[in-house]
């Protein structure tokens, strides 16, 4: 829900998809997700390996995707960007079936 609102606000205020905006959203998301950690709802045990893996995931996959998303909003309409992003799961399931021979199971 927050990601959708963010996308609408980018178009409404004509914000440019730059690295500054991506870092700001990442910071605000980190603050929001730290609430369960500080209230001990879901205690997390940190280790060196887990921390390195988490940082590599956040800096590579998430930041690249978010940067491309905000940049694409400057060139395309919001509806086209959202439809493309929502079809990601369908395409990844098809590619997993074709290349990895994975099938859905219950």
Q: Main sheet, how many strands, which sense, barrel?
A: none
* Overall spatial form: globular
Structural class assignment = mainly alpha
* Number of helices in the DSSP assignment: 5
Strand content: under 5%
Q: Helical proportion? A: over 70%
Mean pLDDT: 78
Ends distance: 27 Å
Summed up, the domain count is 1
The radius of gyration computed from the alpha-carbon positions, rounded to a whole number of angstroms, is 17 Å
Could you state the order of secondary-structure elements as H and E? HHHHH
List low-pLDDT spans.
none
Number of strands: 0
Domain EamA: 3-105
Organism: Elizabethkingia argenteiflava
Protein name: EamA family transporter
GO cellular component, one term: membrane
Give a structural overview:
The chain contains 5 helices and no strands. It is an all-alpha fold and 106 residues long. The protein has one domain. Helix 2 (19-38) crosses helix 3. The model has no long low-confidence stretch (mean pLDDT 78).
Quick recap:
It comes from Elizabethkingia argenteiflava. The protein has 106 residues and is mainly alpha-helical.
Please name the defining characteristics of this protein:
106 residues; mainly alpha; 5 helices; transmembrane helix; EamA family transporter
List the SSEs and their pairings:
Blueprint: H1 2-12, H2 19-38, H3 48-72, H4 78-86, H5 88-99
Helix pairs in contact: 2-3
